Amino acid sequence: MERRLLGWIRFWLVVMMAGLVVSGITAFPLDVELAFAAELLQRIGAAAWVPGVAEWVQRVDEALRETYQEHPFIAYGTDWLAFAHLVIALAFIGPYRDPVRNVWVTQWGMLACLGVVPLALVAGSIRGIPLGWQLIDMSFGVIGIVPLIIVLRLTRRLERQSPTSPGSSAMSVNTSDAPAAVSSAGSVRVGPGGAKP
């Protein structure tokens, strides 16, 4: 049972880590991705049925292209954003190896997901991001917290079933009644009848 719980915990942690890695990697070539998205929306005629989305993507694509042409160093900021996603993914290696001992990492990840919602609302409003796009940004936090909630519940079950966390070693003391002897000068032999010099 413990092995099965550990397997499910690791499965959901891998799902979380994979999402972070994909988010991180795709944050590097933003200009290429936005250009592709804008062109794709134009080809399929998205402006006719989702005009707000098509217009916003086109606007962001133009702004990013102009910014990168005039001030390419701005992309350095999003490079660090991408790197941060990869580093956060590495943090979950701790609970992957020992979910009980490193449960605080899971809880920290849940807090980070909750923080996405107010950040998207506050910063999004200040930066002039459309409400619909803010909702999309908030959905990453809502979706991201789901596997972590599952991991936390499974970790609590694993903790209740096992006195020691998976992967940790426990020291045991053998208190056998069998006689023990130390064969050295001046040793004391201990037997059923008591201590003898």
What does it look like?
The protein is mainly alpha-helical and 197 residues long. Helix content is 71%, strand content 3%. The protein has helices spanning 2-26, 30-43, 46-49, 51-70, 75-91, 93-97, 103-126, 131-161; strands spanning 189-191, 194-196. The chain has a two-stranded antiparallel sheet. It is elongated. Residues 165-190 have low confidence and may be disordered.
Provide keyphrases for this structure:
197 residues; mainly alpha; two-stranded antiparallel sheet; 71% helix
Outline of this structure?
By secondary structure, the protein is mostly helical.
Topology:
Layout: H1 2-26, H2 30-43, H3 46-49, H4 51-70, H5 75-91, H6 93-97, H7 103-126, H8 131-161, E1 189-191, E2 194-196
Antiparallel strand pairs: 1-2
Largest sheet: 2 strands, antiparallel
Distance between the termini: 51 Å
The geometry reads as elongated
Structural class assignment: mainly alpha
Beta-strand percentage? Answer: under 5%
**Uncertain ranges:** 165-190
Question: What value does the Rg take, in angstroms?
Answer: 28 Å
